[in-house]
Design a protein that fits this description.
Blueprint lengths: L4 E6 L5 H11 L2 E8 L2 H14 L7 E4 L1 H6 L5 E4 L3 H13 L3 E4 L7 H13 L4 E3 L7 H11 L9 E7 L6 H4 L11 H5 L1 H11 L7 E10 L8 E10 L5 E7 L2
Parallel strand pairs: 1-2, 1-4, 2-3, 4-5, 5-6, 7-10
Antiparallel strand pairs: 8-9, 9-10
Length: 250
């Protein structure tokens, strides 16, 4: 009998519902447990998800994150916590010998990300981010096309954009406007996709310079500092290729 990958979900965020569906439909994974700050919230999340996309055996509810980290019946932990809370729990999961998948953006800065990936490497566990489109058949075909010199010539310019018009209540309710939980704002939430697409085209070569313009910022949930809500940037690569991207919540 094929052994399935045993998942735990650390945090009952709305985005976790999509990965509940994905794990259920993967055929090789099963959700064993869901942890939230209290058991009742975890159970409510489980009940709602089970009613829509049920597992044969419902996952158990855990009240508190440390108990999930210590569980001996999990192979991997999915961490959809806000970016500002994520580093410590990724490192704890890695130190407990569990593979990690976290939401994007993975960290608030490169120093935090390096600490997280170093912990995973030291414990020989996999670190993954939740950018689903990178794993589609479409991207594999695009890679083939880009690598075919008869199909695509030298790439000189790349342009990408990702934006949406947030409703008025967005900045009062959504954590993506909270400078403590999601300090990168639109850059972290939407720029993760546009930058990832650019680096994909460039075979993950890093740019030699960049220039960014913050066009607007705003804060939410009583925070005094704003987060980027609209921005544009240009990346320059060693061969002279340039890439521009634009992100906005407005």
């Amino acid at each position: 009998m094929e052994r399935k990958l045993r998942w735990g979900i650390l945090g009952a965020a709305n985005i976790a519902r999509k990965n509940w569906d994905a794990i259920r439909n993967s055929g090789n994974g099963v959700i064993v447990a869901v942890a939230s700050r209290n058991e009742a919230k975890a159970q409510s999340f489980i009940d709602e998800c089970q009613s829509e996309v049920p597992f044969g055996e419902a996952p158990r509810a855990i009240g508190g994150y440390d108990e999930m980290i210590a569980a001996d019946d999990l192979d991997a932990i999915y961490i959809p916590l806000p970016t500002g809370m994520r580093k410590d729990w990724v490192i704890k999961a890695a130190n407990a010998g569990k593979h990690v998948m976290c939401e994007k953006p993975c960290a608030i800065d490169s120093e935090e990300l390096e600490a997280m990936t170093s912990a995973c490497a030291a414990n020989k566990v996999q670190f993954m981010d939740g950018v689903m489109y990178m794993h589609s058949d479409r991207m594999a075909k695009l890679r083939e096309a880009l690598d075919d010199s008869e199909n695509v010539g030298e790439i000189r310019r790349i342009a990408s954009a990702f934006s949406f018009c947030a409703p008025p209540e967005f900045f009062g309710e959504n954590i993506r406007g909270n400078s403590e939980l999601e300090p990168a704002g639109a850059l972290g939430d939407l720029g993760w996709y546009t930058i990832r697409a650019t680096l994909f085209v460039m075979n993950y070569e890093m740019p030699v310079s960049l220039r960014a313009t913050l066009l607007s910022s705003a804060g939410s949930n009583g925070t005094s500092d704003g987060v980027p809500t609209e921005l544009s940037a240009e990346l320059i690569f060693a061969n002279g290729t340039s890439a521009t991207f634009y992100n906005s919540f407005l």
